[in-house]
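Subject: LysM domain-containing protein

B.,
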Amino acid sequence: MKKEKFALKNIKYGSTNASIHASERLNISHFIKHKILPTDTVFNLCLKYNVNIEDIRFSNKLLNSKQIFAMDEIVIPIQNVPESQEKFPNVKSENVLSLQEYQEWIKVKINIHSTSPKKQSKSQERYTESPPNVFNNIRTFLDKTDTIIENSHQNLRLHADVNIPSTDTINQNSDKAKNSSNRRYNQQPSYKNNVDILYKYGKPTRYVPDIIEYDQYSVYYDTMNRIPRWAMEHITKASLKGKGNRKHSKFGADSINVPKLFQSDRNDFRGGSLSRGHMVPAGDMKLSQKSMDDTFFYTNIVPQNIDNNTGYWNQIESFCRQLTNDFKDVYIISGPLFVPYFDSKDNETYIKYKMNGKNNVAVPTHLFKIIVGVNKENDIYTANVVVPNEKINSKKKLTDFVVPIEMIEKLTGFVFFPKLKQLNLKNLCTDNIRKCKLPLTWQEMQQLKKNEQNPKVHEKNNN
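Prediction pasted inline below.
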């Protein structure tokens, strides 16, 4: 059988004029997620061809195809393709599906937005099955914001402190810097490729996907501190009414995505006043038992003060769920912070935090939550809160902890919801009917029930 040479970096979806994001190009996660190429096969290929695993860029990034997919003999065993007979009824090869054929199917079937849809060629018409659903609700929302921007008749508001350059600008600046460096040392531009010798024995790598995507949420896992840097979720009124039950879930390591070297275990969250704190709450993932179970991976857990976890933080989580009564979609990003403090003794600034357990899991000083609500009219409301990782009086107002999103971005090193930066956003705590008013704690609700059952006690307390 003739084997195809294949370079994935040339594959883009939609027209050349479309706004193409890295997450919308073919990447290795498609092969692994849909059981086209098993994870072990990918690792073996890397070893065989002396390719660093980091070049593959597992999640949401373009493959470095210069070495991997320019190899002649890579073909996809058709028995590894789910429902292969239905999806590829006319494949000429008896036992294999070439990458050329898989590419052709993917190009037709990945359903993303494009400025000018193209008519399928005759060679593409053979692939008639539905595409794999590789884009989750979060990514769908980010794509929808393009339409909101285009249809907006209001003045666009830009954040003064955050200037996000376009990909073209980054590439231009990179080229200018390289050319400037070549002129400075009187070198020819072709000499720049000698940097490849640095990676003769491989690049430093984490062996963990940049973003781990579960059924209903995604997370960025910090392999050094062994906690999530952020976790992102999407909830609706309907998604909160599933049959997932936390009684059937157990805490554990995600051994598929995280090597043992970078894992934590249950003993790392014990001691003192600490507990295992979910960043994506189990109560938000009731859509299925699988979704519920995913929240109990330690990739979603931080060492959290137990009073904070069961008290004020729990109130914030309940407040977010209540927002589904006012908004058709609620998007939430939660995570830990390590906030610097100023020491007046020596006039210096420090970051100080505890490392817990034998795996040295970092105990955050604070926690943050970024909340985005979209109503039926597509008006977008936001609020950003930062609370200390300690016991907080339940009478404290949530507005006492509201901060600009730039503060969270500077402390984490991430820009969150970048496509919202150009929109005229509304304040969730002032423009919304709930005014960021937190619900009662469990203890307060129990006390309220007792007072209703015993009116005399209630009357006495009021006096």
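The chain has a mean pLDDT of 72.

T.
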